[in-house]
Amino acid sequence: MKCARCVAPRDIRIVESPDPVPEDNEILVSVRAVSLCPSDHHIYKEGHASGVYPDHEMILGHEFSGVVAKPAADGSGPPEGTRVAIEPAWHCGRCDICKRGLINICRNVVFPSYPNRDGALAEYIACPSFSAAPLPDNVGFVQAALAEPLGVAIHAVRHANLGFGDVVAILGVGVIGTALVELCKLAGVRSILVVDPNESRHAVPLELGADQAYTDKDQLIEDVGGTEHGPSVVFDVTNGQDSFSHSVDVCEPGGQVIVITIPPHDHAELTASTARRKELDIQFSRRSRHTLEEAVRLVSEGRVHPDRWPRKEFSLDETGAAFECSTNPPPGMVRAVVNVGE
Question: What does the H/E/C string look like for the chain?
Answer without folding.
Answer: CEEEEEEECCEEEEEECCCCCCCCCEEEEEEEEEECCHHHHHHHHHCCECCECCCCCEECCCEEEEEEEECCCCCCCCCCCCEEEECCCECCCCCHHHHCCCHHHCCCCECCCCCCCCCCCECEEEEEHHHEEECCCCCCHHHHHCHHHHHHHHHHHHHHCCCCCCEEEEECCCHHHHHHHHHHHHHCCCEEEEECCCHHHCHHHHHHCCCEEECCHHHHHHHHCCHHHCCCEEEECCCCCCHHHHHHHHCCCCCEEEECCCCCCCCCCCCHHHHHHCCCEEEECCCCCCCHHHHHHHHHCCCCCHHHCCEEEEEHHHHHHHHHHHHCCCCCCCEEEEECCC
